[in-house]
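Methods — Computational structure assignment.
A single polypeptide chain was analysed. Its primary sequence is given first, followed by the predicted tertiary structure written as structure tokens.
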Amino acid sequence: MASSASFSQSTTGLSYKASLAAGVFWLLAIFSAVFWALKWWPQPSASSQPTMAVNDAFTLTPTHAQLTKALGGANSAHALKEQPNTAARFVLVGIAKAGKSNGVALLSVDGQPSKPYRVGATLADGWVLQLVESNKVSIGASALGASALEVSLPKRN
């Protein structure tokens, strides 16, 4: 009687393992069939693919002076008149940390997206961020020289 009980326990364990192996095999077979069906399924043509719209908000239009310079032309009186005001080139978006030596300001230079600048960093064309205060920054030709510009945060409504 003891031998028949151990025999039934061992066959139960084998049938469980066989069922598990068969289940894993069929799952792999189904996943493989789905993979190859999707691989061979006809893909939509390129014209029916969705396209992304281009946002013109950040499109820059070159000025006459910039085009003349890019094409190798000489500076004319007209080109010199179109040079942007130096103060208008810099827009203060925010201040992360104020301080004389370790301040960080979020500035937009020449209409580009804003970037963080530390005190002493070169902004553009040799302009250097000299000082960051609670609501304005000072910009000059060198880190230790006299301040040429002060740019303030825009007024909030």
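Note: The CA atoms of residues 91 and 108 lie 5 Å apart.
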